[in-house]
Amino acid sequence: MLPMTVARSQLIDRVNGGFHHVVSRCVRRSWLCGWDSHSGRDFSHRKGWIEEWLLTLTKAFAVRVYGYAVMSNHCHIALEVRPKEVLGLTTEEVARRWLIAHPPSKGVDLELRVQALANNAEKIEVLRDRLGDLSWFMRCLNWRIAFRANREDGCTGRFWEGRFHSGKPLPSLKSLYACMTYVDLNPLRAGATDSVAEIGERTGLRRRVEESEVDDRKLREALAPLRIERLGGRIYSGGPTSLELTLGQYLAHVQWTARQQIADREGRIKPSELAPNTLSDPEGFLALVRKFHKRWGRKEGRGDAPLPGHVRPGQEGSLATS
């Protein structure tokens, strides 16, 4: 396992980008996005803040989000960074994208702000570089959530741990699919559900399943990046994709892996069912999923495990099987 002090420049390819698994944890791993037993307050609504702002930022940055799980004290994101996409943007496009991530203050004319930035060639090149930078993407995500939470609580100070955590780029699509499976099954591993048929509300897979229930053609289409129409709007999948697996095939991967993990957790013999035919090396795939758990699991703990006598709303949902 890579030491957590490795410089970002050694982990992230700023020229070619790549697939990454990133994790942000609340300070002291407190339940700042869930039920706080100390104050008796439920902060679960903050999960929606994270989900919406995460997908809004993909309109600005050269980042494609393929999976995420927002938990009570941490969040996981499986994404692709594509820094070369910003090289061909016009100065005005760079300015508009930056102002998605940093909207002007109330009362400030957006078009005037766009033109002011576009006319500053030196500044534009700095912003162009930032729009292709994973660290800046995570900085914009985490800062806004921390600001809103502190304002809600009437306090100051850290909301997240010092910086987000990541490793070297994922080396293959197989490792990305294993990463996405690990991320989407986080609620099950954390104890928020004990069933393959239930999944946390604030996960990328939940949104994909909801979309397929409206339009079953999505099950036969390649997994596309997750998007949002506007802040607070509909979440959907669409646009260019680097993936080949269809949603239906991916669901089969997730369900099969979940059943294996439940059997392991309960000390039962693993189900003898055949693995999906899209998994050429099922045991190798499980080992990849286990690799992510070994790296992150001990640090996460059971951040979303239900408290005795308390059921937090919005944590269950149906996982499509077709």
Structure, described:
The chain is an alpha+beta fold and about 325 residues long. Helix content is about 40%, strand content about 10%. It has eleven helices and eight strands. It has helices spanning about 10, 45-55, 90-100, 110-120, 120-130, 135-155, 175-185, 185-190, 205-215, 245-265, 280-300; strands at about 20-25, 35, 40, 65-70, 75-80, 165, 225-230, 235. Strands 4-5-1-6 form a four-stranded antiparallel β-sheet, sandwiched between helices. Helix 3 (about 90-100) crosses helix 5. Mean pLDDT is about 80; it is low at about 300-305 and about 305-320.
Features:
42% helix, two-stranded antiparallel sheet, 322 residues, single chain, alpha+beta
Overall shape: it is globular
Overall mean confidence score, pLDDT:
82
Could you tell me the strand content as a percent range? 5-15%
Q: What's the count of strands?
A: 8
Rounded to the nearest angstrom, the radius of gyration is 20 Å
Q: pLDDT under 50 segments (min length 5)?
A: 298-303, 305-322
Count of individual helical segments? 11
Order of helices and strands: HEEEHEEHHHHEHHHEEHH
Biggest sheet strand line-up:
4-5-1-6
Helix content: 40-55%
Distance between the termini: 37 Å
Structural class: alpha+beta
- Main pleated-sheet profile: 4 strands, antiparallel
